[in-house]
Amino acid sequence: MKSILTFSLIYILHFNSFSQADSLAKKSAKEIKKATEIPPLKLKLNEDGSHFFQITFLNQTWLRFNENNPGTTLEGDLKNHTIDIGLRRTRIQMFGQLSDRAFVYFQFGQNNFNSQFAVGANRKVAVFFHDALCEYRLSAGNQLVVGGGLTIANGLSRFSQPSIGTIMTMDVPVFAQATVDQTDEFSRKLSVYAKGQIGKIDYRLIFSDPFPIASNGQPPITISTQANFARKGHNKQYQGFFQYQFFEREVSTTPYMTGTYLGKKKIFNLGTGIIYQPNAMWKQGLTEKDTVYQPMVLWAAEAFLDVPLNKEKGTAISAYLGYFNYNFGTDYLRYNGLMNPATGINSTVGKVGKSGATFGNAYPMFGSGQSLYGQFGYLFSNDLLGENGTLMPYISATYADWNRLGMPMTVYNSGINWLMNSHKAKFTLDWQNRPVYSEINGTVKNSGRRNCLILQYQIFI
User: Fold this and answer.
1) How far apart are CA 174 and CA 149, in angstroms?
2) Each residue of 25-69: pLDDT tens digit?
3) Among 83, 157, 406, 446, which residue's CB has the most CB atoms within a 10 Å radius?
4) Per-residue pLDDT tens for 224-250?
5) How many other β-carbons are positioned within 10 Å of the β-carbon of residue 126?
6) Which residues pair with 411 in a beta bridge?
7) Domain 2-14+48-460, what fold?
């Protein structure tokens, strides 16, 4: 905990030094903001700009202190805690409305690039296409758009297809991207889809061809009495997402859904979504030679509120509550640690079970069962720090009742955004408290809790 306090003190001193230096400037906050506003990198393809091609860049740098799970090793040495630096996301987006009806979108980049991400592999091959899709508007308005390609467009929920450059919390609730890196490519699948807005209803219908589990780059998991993704057979996936927009309509130019509008829109939506794939999972039957196939059925219901409180001052609130019901088959459970800072586990101290690696910052993020996720944030007035921007503190919590755990699991986060130029330039300080589990002879047991503190710097243009 001394390291956590030191880290926080360094951040506060850094913040104050910048505030004192910048307060000497004579220009007003509005004048400085106008002078430093970066125009979009946008090429007009016609006179009124309705046809265009645009490029954006995003980088999220993390400085992190993590209290490791029991038995964690880093390059062979036992480590109770780690301090690491990494690129959580580095992205380039290229998209354009090429005609009244034709739209194209590409995203290129990498995720989770720290010193340990490629142990035993090649650290120079992490960059890949996240998205590559084409769309065609069939209706005169936005009622019906069809598209296809490699895309994150899917069913389930808002945070299953999040705009990571505009999220309020430091990171998204990754468990909402339910099959991430199992039968998809960082939540993207090869799909064809129809989407649109009819009145106040926003919808997405997706038909996907998921990747086989054998191509996810991880060692195969031996078939057992607990379900896992089947390594034999190939079935298509069916998805749908629907939401009712009570106030303003959200723009759906790209497949990604905004995290918070920072008081620029008045949004209240109720949504629901589903993902279904027959025979997606398998498990051992009554005998070792008997294989049982099971469907994957995932659905969710959610409410999203993002509204201004005082437009003149710029204050606003953002809130989300979602219920997730996951059926990955009998007792499915999978650990995951975001940009894991460690590389292994000492079997005499910690245990690795069939549900995945438990070292570093991993916890049972996915499972068959039910989960609730909620978040709330308050945006202070836009002149709170003068020309230095404003602050937006937040809290979030995950409550999961995964069948195999036999006990509820909770993860808590709280943090604060220093919005120097809205989402375009911001610092985020985030604290997480997560559970720790040990898995011995197939039985998962709770063995305490651990903390993690992260300072993120985001540039998004």
Assistant:
1) 23
2) 445 445 545 545 678 899 999 999 999 999 999 999 999 999 999
3) 157
4) 999 999 999 999 999 999 999 999 999
5) 16
6) 398
7) Porin (2.40.160)
Q: What is the CA radius of gyration of the chain?
A: 23
pLDDT tens track for 72-126:
999 999 999 999 999 999 999 999 999 999 999 999 999 999 999 888 788 888 8
Local structure of 5: helix, strand or coil:
helix
Least confident residue range of 145-159, 214-228, 304-318: 214-228
Nearest to 255 by CA among 57, 409, 359, 106: 106
Outline where DSSP puts E strands in 138-185.
145-151
The answer to whether the CB of 374 falls within 8 A of the CB of 400 is no
Q: How far apart are CA 178 and CA 186, in angstroms?
A: 10
Report how far apart, in Å, the C-alpha atoms of 322 and of each of 111, 181, 299, 374, 397 are.
Answer: 25, 22, 11, 6, 11
The domain ranges of the chain are 2-14+48-460
As a three-state string, the secondary structure of 414-437 is EEEEEEEECECEEEEEEEEEEEEE
Q: Give dist(CA 16, CA 124) in Å, integer.
A: 38
Residue given tokens 């889809």 in the structure block = 193
